[in-house]
Amino acid sequence: MSTPIVELKAVGKHFRAADGSARSVLEGVDFTLREGEIVALLGQSGSGKSTMLRIMAGLIQADAGQVLYRGMPLYGTARGIRMVFQSFALFPWLTVQKNVELGLEAQGMAPEERARRAEKVIDLIGLSGFEGALPRELSGGMRQRVGIARALVMEPEVLLMDEAFSALDVLTGERLREEILDLWQSGQIPTKAILVVSHNIEEAVMMADRVLIFASDPGRVRAELPISLPQPRKAESAEVRQLIDKVYELMTASAGKRGGLISEKEVKLALGDRLPQADIAHMEGILQLLVAEPFHGRADLPKLAEETELTDAELLEVLNALILLGFAYLTNGDILLTELGGRYVKAGNTERQEMFGKQLLEHVPLIAYICHGLQQDKSGDLPEDLFLKLLRFTLSEEEAERALRVAIEWGRYGDLFEYNFNTGVIQLPEEDEQDEV
Q1: How far apart are CA 412 and CA 105, in angstroms?
Q2: Tens-digit pLDDT profile for residues 154-189
Q3: Does the pLDDT at position 73 exceed 60?
Q4: Integer distance in angstroms from the first to the last C-alpha of the chain?
Q5: Angstrom distance (rounded) from CA 35 to CA 232
Q6: Could you tell me which of 400, 415, 292 has the C-alpha nearest to residue 349?
Q7: Measured between alpha carbons, how far is residue 46 from residues 220, 258, 318 in Å?
Q8: How far apart are CA 189 and CA 159, in angstroms?
Q9: Most buried of the four, 66, 85, 95, 146, by CB within 10 Å?
Q10: Could you give phi then psi for residue 234, rounded to 5 degrees?
Q11: How many CA atoms lie within 13 A of 45 on its CB side?
Q12: Strand 210-215 with 328-331, pairing
């Protein structure tokens, strides 16, 4: 086997919850990145993938376990490891040239040498002629090229890419991905290993020599799929489509709390659990697709993904919501419509709302808790902060906000409560006035 560059051994990371307790984000992560390979890491949002990359880059410290770089413990950042972020992370007041030179300047390199190095990488990454441009004058794809150039100019052994293509439109992302692969395969960059965090299953299969499936709550490597197909790969080839099917199968082979789809035995959530990030329109759109041709109530997940305009991550969130609410279930890597889901599709708007509200009360403890609190309060309304404080005991600030936003959207649609966007108050719906007989 090729030489290990970065090794994670039983790595753990936790953050403090609102009650002072430790909330585990990563636990027992074992991973080795070797010379000559591209590895893709897939998993749900909030599963700790980005935290793992930041630990590998030395940007944050692990709380447990060991991180080795070239066999030596890693303390702080390593010169041989560089990271590309989803958000571009450029300094808006600096030109392309100055943004790319920044790391070299921080190392104390002479102006002439850093200018030469930056110009070479700028040309390599396809930005010649834009050296004097500011980030606001560039498209999203060009800004990401600057972010990649800024990493490559440091001549890293290891390149960590944290959803580097996800903020771009599909065609721009594909083109940039192919160009990075070309640079890698032609040896025009000195990088010896690449780790890509992605939500895009096809992207992972097209790029990687290994695909890792990350579990969540807490985050850790749950499954691995080696890929031996030679490069370049064709997305429409039977071999690639089979691998995509296999990745879907691996991602749905475990319960939702562990990083895949929710199983029939685990549709019940606890009060402070993360809710699937799915909006009503997408949920109803998927149900409509399932009931119609060519699926007739049962769909192979890759084929269903092709029929939607959702990303893989968005689709899995929607499917988790449908399973949670009893409108669909999972078997052998396929999603099937339940009898209730079939009735829901055929129902009118009012009946749909009633069915939706009933399922929420049965399967989503947070929404049932909100409704109970409203009914017990004499005024019939409560501030959202009350529920956010509760959620912060088990979820991070960001996750608590997301969970409550989803609960409010679902609860409003199910006609269980109303929400005042100006005051942040949740209240019982006003009863329809009945005409006196």
Answers
A1: 54
A2: 888 999 988 877 766 777 778 888 888 888 888 888
A3: yes
A4: 84
A5: 19
A6: 415
A7: 12, 12, 16
A8: 11
A9: 146
A10: -105, 125
A11: 18
A12: unpaired
The ranges assigned to domains in the chain are 4-251, 266-431
Nearest to 299 by CA among 308, 312, 290: 290
In this structure, the chain runs to a length of: 437
* Of the candidates 383, 370, 167, 164, the residue with the CA atom closest to the CA atom of residue 275: 370
pLDDT at 257: 38
| C-alpha R_g of the chain | 24
User: Selecting from 3.40.1390.30, 3.40.50.880, 1.20.58.460, 3.40.50.300, what CATH number does the domain 4-251 have?
Assistant: 3.40.50.300
Mind listing the pLDDT tens digit for each residue in 238-285? 898 888 888 887 777 643 333 444 444 444 566 767 788 889 999 999
| Alpha carbons 346 and 180: distance in angstroms, whole number | 48
Pairing relation of β-strands 220-226 and 210-215?
A: antiparallel
Give the dihedral of Cα atoms 126, 128, 132, 138; nearest 10 deg.
-30
Strands (E), 74-185: 81-84, 158-162
To the nearest whole number, what is the mean pLDDT of the chain?
83
* pLDDT beyond 60 at 391: yes
pLDDT at 221: 86
Q: What percent of the chain has pLDDT over 90?
A: 23
Q: In what order do the strands lie in the sheet with 37-42?
A: 81-84, 158-162, 193-198, 37-42, 210-215, 220-226
For residue 416, the one-letter residue type is L
Mean pLDDT is lowest, of 12-26, 168-182, 259-273, 384-398, for 259-273
- pLDDT per position as a tens digit, 319-342: 889 988 999 988 776 888 999 999
Work out the number of other CB atoms within 10 angstroms of the CB of residue 20.
7
Interhelix angle 96-106/111-124, nearest 10 degrees: 130
> What pLDDT was estimated at residue 266?
46
Helices (H) and strands (E) in the chain, counts: 15, 16
Please tell me the distance from the alpha carbon of residue 257 to that of residue 45, in angstroms, as a whole number. Answer: 12
